[in-house]
Write a structure and sequence with these properties.
The structure is a homodimer of 344-residue chains.
Chain A lengths: L8 E6 L8 H13 L5 E7 L1 H10 L7 E5 L10 H7 L4 H10 L5 E4 L3 H12 L9 E7 L5 E5 L9 H19 L6 E4 L10 H11 L7 E5 L3 H4 L4 E3 L2 H25 L4 H9 L1 H11 L7 E4 L4 E4 L6 H16 L2 H12 L1
Parallel strand pairs in A: 1-2, 1-4, 2-3, 4-11, 6-9, 7-8, 7-9
Antiparallel strand pairs in A: 5-6, 5-10, 10-11
Chain lengths: 344, 344
């Protein structure tokens, strides 16, 4: 994998997933190719051939960049993971992940059902050596105009301190690959910053981190308000708390957006102001929109399986492609294994 | 307590707590008395007599409404609860709570150190009959222009399903007393709305609720984004998750406020717009400001101990006084006991 900077990178894409398929996927590829002329990336597109062809034509994407695999079976967004596992074989999502398993693709991207994607990814790719439980990592914008990587976002409801330690390792490697920051700082999500705070699991995970190769990067405990403050680069937590925190952020963002909208439509004067400031508002919206920080990933599997936001548009799908390439080029899984071996 | 509508209600106030003491406390009383002419409320003010007298004079508060207790010992905002318990005797916070214990006051309010307030309240007031663990309840504004009551906000890190059930009882009684809504709906915070989601504790708490006198009010599982959406009236969770969620809301609110501020100061035109819209902005800010929903409470103690926001101003302190009176008049503790007895 050393020469991955030069060889052709292959990414399999589920073109029947998410709210805006296949336009988001194909427009994302188009935007990516526009930004990266003479790219060494090839896309395996799993979806309905005739429809895909019309989009590929519309966006003028050259044949050298893709290969079409005709599939019309898709996993619905409301499908339960257990049902998806049982009946999902042959679906676009399944085949896209299987391409990674078969080493035909270096990574896969899907904007489909998160639970199903997680279940199928685990079944097909299996857990990485020395990792007990894979985790879902997510990037979130911060006040500091940077991003924080948070994990686990819901793959593991009950976690041990060993799980949290492994999440810290995986999150660090992920953050370094995507953001390019060496030795990212790590915080453990807790209800206070003092040593005595929290439950036994976080306390013993903190002890473990303080005595590990990550000790110099370990910031200590962080609280809910530290996530968007950007206090640390990587926030580690169990899947229950992580999922609640992420959805609470989304809910609070919506609450603000709704109130702002009301403010700017409640009088003619306010409407006028909003109109004058359209451009400023757009940049504001871009900055606070979590969809512009697209690309969650299931870390800890024998292969790269990226989850794009379900309602991603072309721009955010392009962002997911760029992140996926960073993960491939940075040999993320090899680095995770190396770090855990050193520790043993 | 049946005639509590007519008799004098006595509220003890810690006048050495919070960021803005004693001005927030005294201004809060002034605003309350302005709104409630011929009030039957008397305040026991624990603080530095000479300073309090000058504020009471400034706000022209009549002597019939207060009694001064000269205290200069205060518990610092950064004091650890264990230290506060050991050394806090004789402090304004301690004495204000002790007045409730001695039945000299019907309730106490403090804007001081939350951890210390919780520890001292528990020590002096003790746990209510049939309650295993007291909880910290907090009201939060929602999209629906209503409020949601959330508990526990950090008093109990590890919770059993019995604890969660009791939180549901206490939260319902609290919400009904403050908001005046009969049979408030109850949601259990989880990582998904389906029955199979979550850990054993929430699953068995859900089972318990479905088979209790609260069954008709039990909505089921809710997620992080449901909190501010106002999906239910009462959100029940353990203290770890509740604390993380509350602080995540605060952090997200700050993130938005900071970005909005940047938006309205980045150009002369934008600054001008902000100036023109000052009034609209103020009402927007009021609506989204959690400080305007002031008054958390330790539920499940033999007495009413209200926690005001540390940086409350006069207006929000007045709000805490109004809520405290509702809790007294509604005999909140008697109702909690009744509901738990019915259940046994």
């Amino acid at each position: 994998m050393i020469d991955s900077q030069k060889r052709i990178l292959t990414i399999s894409i589920d073109c029947l997933g998410g709210d805006n398929y296949p336009s988001a996927q194909i427009e994302g590829i188009k935007l990516f190719l526009d930004k990266n002329k003479n790219s060494n990336v090839k896309f395996l597109l799993f979806g309905e051939k005739s429809i895909l062809e019309s989009y590929l034509g519309k966006f003028k994407i050259h044949k050298q960049y893709y290969e079409l695999i005709d599939v019309d079976k898709r996993i619905k967004s409301e499908e339960k993971p257990s049902i998806a596992l049982r009946n999902g074989k042959g679906s676009s999502m399944w085949l896209a992940i299987d391409a990674v398993k078969q080493k035909v693709a270096d990574a896969s991207i899907s904007a489909g059902n998160t639970g199903a994607l997680m279940a199928i990814s685990m079944l097909l790719l299996r857990t990485l050596q020395d990792i007990d439980r894979p985790a879902l990592a997510q990037m979130i914008p911060t006040e500091k105009n940077s991003s924080v990587t948070m994990l686990d976002m819901g793959a593991n409801i009950d976690c041990s301190s060993d799980n949290l330690y492994q999440f810290a390792v995986m999150g660090s490697v992920f953050h370094e690959a995507i953001v390019g920051k060496k030795n990212p700082s790590i915080g453990l999500l807790n209800v206070g910053s003092e040593d005595m705070k929290g439950n036994d699991v976080v306390k013993s995970a903190a002890f473990r981190l303080k005595n590990s190769i990550l000790k110099d990067n370990f910031y200590g405990f962080v609280e809910g308000n530290d996530i968007l403050k950007g206090t640390v680069d990587v926030v580690v937590t169990d899947g229950f708390t992580g999922n609640v925190a992420l959805k609470t952020i989304e809910g609070t963002a919506k609450f603000f957006a709704k109130n702002l909208k009301e403010l700017f439509t409640k009088s003619l004067l306010n409407k006028l102001m909003a109109l004058i400031m359209t451009k400023s508002f757009r940049s504001f919206k871009d900055k606070i929109n979590p969809e512009n920080y697209n690309g969650a990933m299931f870390l800890g599997l024998n292969g790269i399986s990226v989850k794009s936001h379900g309602n991603a548009n072309g721009r955010s799908f392009c962002f997911a492609i760029e992140n996926t390439i960073k993960l491939i080029k940075n040999n993320i899984n090899e680095k995770i294994i190396d770090m855990l071996i050193v520790e043993e």
